[in-house]
Amino acid sequence: MAKVNIKIDGQDVICDAGSTILEAAQSAGIYIPTLCYHSDLIPDGVCRVCSVEVKGQRTLCAACCFPVSDGMEVMTHTPKVREARRMIVELMLANHPGECLTCSKNQKCELQKFAKELGISDIRFKGERRQYDIDASSPIIRDPDKCILCGRCVRTCDDIQSVGALHPAYRGWETLVVPGLGGELADVVCVNCGQCINRCPTGALKAKDPAPEIWEAIYDPTKHVIVQTAPAVRASIGEEFGLPPGTRVTKKMVTALKMLGFDRVMDTDFTADLTIMEEGSELIKRIKEGGVLPQITSCSPGWIKFIEYYYPELLPHVSTCKSPQQMFGALAKTYYAQKMNIDPKNIVSVSIMPCTAKKFECERPEMYSSGYKDVDYVLTTREAAGMMKEAGIDLPNLRESEYDDPFGMSTGAAVIFGNTGGVMEAALRTAYALITGRELEKVEIEDVRGMEGVRETTIQIGDLPVKAAVAHGLANARQVLEGIKSGRFADYAFIEIMCCPGGCIGGGGQPQPTNEEIRKARARAIYEEDESMTIRKSHENPAVQKLYEEFLGHPLSHKSHELLHTHYTPRERRTIRRSEETSKPKTTKADSSKKVKVD
Amino acid sequence: MAFYRAHILVDAGPSAVQKGAMALKAALIDEIKKRGLDKEIKVIETGDLGVPGGGPALVIYPEGITYAGVTTADVPEIVEEHLIKGRQVKRLVYTETTPSIVETPDRARSKEMRIILKNVGVIDPTSIEEYIAAGGYEALGKALKTMKPEEIIAEVKASQLKGRGGAAFPTGLKWEFTAKAAGQEKAVVCNADEGEPGNFKDRILLEGDPHQIIEGMVIAGYAVGAHDGFIYIRGEYRQAAACMERAIGVAREMGLLGKNILDTGFDFDIQVFRGAGAYICGEETALLESMEGKRGQSRMKPPFPPTYGLTGSPTVVNNVETFCNVPHIINNGAEWYTGIGTSQSKGTKILTPCGDVLLPGAYEVPFGVTLREVLFNMAGGIKSGRQLKAVMMGGPSGAVVGQESLDRRLCAEDLQPGAGALIVVDEDKCMVDIMHNIAQFFYHECCGQCVPCREGTKRMLEILGWWTAGAGSESDIKMLEQLANTMALSSRCGLGQFAGVAFKTSLPLFEEEYRAHLKDKVCPTGVCPMDRVLEEVK
Question: What CATH homologous superfamily does B6-85 map to?
Fold first, then answer.
């Protein structure tokens, strides 16, 4: 790429011709503060915090958007820049509730960080402040008062997920980010992926936290409280305790959960192995019996809701397997209850997930196949860390301990479910063995690894060339689905789709912040975990084999269908306006010491 | 073509229609028919003649006499006296105090130079034949048949024509960027959103001489290699839009729009787009967003429309008046054009003095006339003999000047007239109240996208509201000035950048008046309610 020479604060910087001032500054190690900018998103230049002076320009320029040109001279902290930047942050603070101490984003809030960095000690504008109702209609809670209208959630939902649940509405000072036509989030097309939460700089978006109910269950002596942990959690929860991204803390996390008082700490990885058995068998059945192909994975609940909304006609492609979380839930209140001789009504089943869509999934009416609610509560990685912190547990310095039986045993194939491409890799490892009767020599399938939006591979299984594709992020998923409709994937056997960028390691319940670098570090940790395992193929998991012997019989058995498989519901993309009132802007005066005259 | 010995042009602008212009027109036609004169006299609807007063106005040609405040009851008398006996109905002829945009023998407008406005109020805007008879579409023929696109751009560049929407960007340069930009599909967009308060020149052109705009746009399309033209007309301009639609239809029938224009093989057509009333959609990138069906808000610049415009194609966006200059430049040459105006502002500018001025209206003048000449010689001075206090140059987003600037020249090198509005404020008005009013406007029109503008317009409105209530303090002045600076420097588009200009430029002129509100809690003109002061006394 062509290079250009520019000067930033007197320092010569050589950068790519197409880059922005911000990118040039970052490459030279020069700090320019940003707020509406996020490395995952197309910059929009609305917060103006990154304003810099460019010689020859009439006004200041937003560094996040302004392209460099040869010979450009940029100054990042002239008196003009400093005054404007301070004023912009002051203006934002004047319209922001000062509830930092009780805010979910306390100490992680980017606005709070700026206020501190710039040393804003007084807010001179003492007028009206936004005051709206909190929207707690869905697993994602919106607090419009804390919203600074940076548009990161809007761009995330539009550009990464192609869902478009959130939009700016109304004009000027009354602008609000609202779901659809101004209803509540539960009324509009939202897949609950939580990617908006991950990119919100303030506390305007958060997930519904079930910790109080879980504490109550733990303290209740009549309840048997079990917990499952998803593959991706072990590679990220350490970040909540200050460990660098990509630190594996699997066994310390098990200790921490035991310390919290869970009666059994078990692993979703176990049912991930089980998923491979069921889903792999389903795939082979479809291939042999001429079923609908390509078969698409079903473990990502955000993705499931997406296809139910946007491509219901393609639902026959989706595997009927439940997600590992729900397989675990169904078995916990049947097989496990029998084995432990506990009345399933006294079992409280908790899961720790990197995901906010799982909160919606466990509430689905199909998810009661044990006769009870299969999974009672879903904690995100962040919320689980919150419980540990509340109990004074210092995760990084704990001893290690093992998962409990009977659902504690798992393989390397299960843990890679956390990465985009992981389910595919795990399935291919097993399918190869099931079809050919031989084992793969090299279990790592590099073609399906990485962060490319859509990846494809062909694996020769015996004399059968199996074509497979992987997509992550719903905008990429949409591209694949359009491809299926146009016939581009007609000769493909299997497609893996994950709702979130990077797969579960980039899930909406994961520690903040998120960016590609952090996601890559977590993905690396997941692959390391796989390598460290003695068994790396799902069909070799002895606990799974035992489960089939003792309880299920064989994959796709009648019992399997009853407990481990499900069906899907086409959903209408129509906004239902539940309440007229919620949509109306409601502002009240925060400080009435001065009278406001508005004609 | 039939020959008529007299033409009556009835003002059918929006306000005249409200006052019964259509009934007047019908009554005239009836009366003329009744007297068997319908083969001799033609009644024509035209756009706004700019005549205020009790009722609609009309102009009778060939004499060019304007009657103002005409009602249907006056019709028999006008027909009897003026059209049969040849005597003017003196009591209805407009006087010095009934201004009009029509050139008349009664009041010389020596300083006016009508190039763009020459047909307005003279020809029938619905008749393409009259436009052609007045020399219309000659430039189009010349451009398409004898000039290459590069030659047209060179001519426009040589004319030094600058945009007439307020920003004064060189038009030829804009066309050149668009012509050279990569991309097969290009577009020409006429910005007729005219949202800046005090401006109404574009409406007069749209209603009074629509073919001039079409001609300019087709030439622009040919010059930059575009085949699609769009006119984005402000939502409130219903009649202007209808007038344009009609003119486009007629031009299309005549082969002046559509496929193979004038047998040259050049295709170009124009569609009318209607705005929905947002001021920000007059900003060119917000206008394009609005045309694409998106939320009306500005785009990040660069890239500018000449490289990335309507749905990403290179696009020329010019103001109505800018396009109107083009046929004249093509016909008469750049040399003729640069002979008019000043060294940095060539040609004429339509100014619309309004507010506390005796004869508000549209006046086309060469650049370089003084503010005094426009306000006092043409617009008749301040109403009721009061003193001039301030003039908002171009509208609320422009600079505020006072008495001291009367002898400054209106041109780029001295006093910028912006889009052309000269909002005149007399001595009875309070500047705090006016600033509050301006703040209200920008608060209401802000799109809400960027922080400085969204939060800044709100705080500006609040603070000025407190001032009018007597609840301000002297430290507010510095705070407001800082706020205006920040908004000017860091807002994402022109709206926020110019929202504080009026306050900033008024401060050195009226600081004393501001301080009276803040320190002494007194409004010197008695306009502001100062109600908080009373409450405190109680």
Answer: Glutaredoxin (3.40.30.10)
Beta bridge partners of B388: B426
In chain A, whose CA is at the least distance from the CA of B485? A84
Does B482 touch chain A if contact means CB atoms closer than 8 Å? yes
Note if A282 is an active site residue.
yes
Domain with CATH 3.40.50.1780 in chain A: 211-564
Domain with CATH 3.40.30.10 in chain B: 6-85
Q: What is the pLDDT of residues A10-63, one digit of tens each?
A: 999 999 999 999 999 999 999 999 999 999 999 999 999 999 999 999 999 999
The CATH classification number of B128-338 equals: 3.40.50.11540
DSSP string of A467-497, one letter each residue: EEEEEESHHHHHHHHHHHHHTTTTT--EEEE
From-to residues of CATH 3.10.20.740 in chain A: 3-90
Alpha-carbon distance values, A458 to A287, A420, A439, A466, B526 (Å)? 15, 17, 17, 5, 84
CATH 3.40.50.11540 range(s) for chain B read: 128-338
Query: Cβ separation of B450 and A51 shorter than 8 Å?
Result: no
What pLDDT does A575 receive? 55
Phi, psi of B388 (to 5 degrees): -75, 135
Cβ(A354)–Cβ(A507) below 8 Å? yes
pLDDT digits (tens, 9 = 90+) for B303-348: 999 999 999 999 999 999 999 999 999 999 999 999 999 999 999 9
Specify the range with the lowest mean pLDDT, choosing from A467-476, A504-513, B1-10. Answer: B1-10
Nearest CA distance, A160 vs chain B (angstrom): 19
B489 contacts A596? CB cut-off 8 A: no
Q: Is A251 a catalytic residue?
A: no
Q: Which fold has domain A3-90?
A: Ubiquitin-like (UB roll) (3.10.20)
B225 phi and psi, to 5 degrees? 85, 35
Assigned CATH topology for domain A211-564:
Rossmann fold (3.40.50)
- Closest-approach residue (CA) in chain B for A58: B489
pTM, rounded to two decimals: 0.91
Q: Which residues of B touch A80 (CB under 8 A)?
A: 489
Catalytic residue at A366? yes
Does B169 reach chain A within 8 Å, measured CB to CB? Answer: no
Rounded Cα gap, residues A28 and A26, in angstroms: 5
For domain B431-537, the CATH architecture is Up-down Bundle (1.20)
Q: What is the pLDDT of residue B361?
A: 87
Convert B269-293 to b/e letters by CB count within 10 Å (16 or more is b).
Answer: bbebbbbeebbbbbbbbbbbbbbee
- B64 φ/ψ angles, rounded to the nearest 5 degrees: 75, 35
Cβ separation A62–B485 shorter than 8 A: no
Comma-separated ranges of CATH 3.30.70.20 domains in chain A:
100-205+581-588
Return residue ranges of chain B for CATH 3.10.20.600: 348-426
Give the pLDDT of residue B99: 46
- CATH number, domain A100-205+581-588: 3.30.70.20
Tell me the HSE value of B148 on the side-chain side, using a 13 A CA sphere.
3
pLDDT at B385: 83
B454 and A172 within 8 Å at the Cβ level: the answer is yes
Confirm if A510 and A354 have CB atoms less than 8 A apart: yes
* Percent of chain B that is helix, strand, coil (3-state, to 5): 45, 15, 40
Interchain proximity B490–A88, CB inside 8 Å: yes
Confidence of residue B117 (pLDDT cuts 50, 70, 90): very high
Nearest Cα to B77, choosing from B63, B91, B64? B91
Inform me whether the pLDDT recorded for A311 exceeds 90. Answer: yes
> In residues, how long is chain B?
538
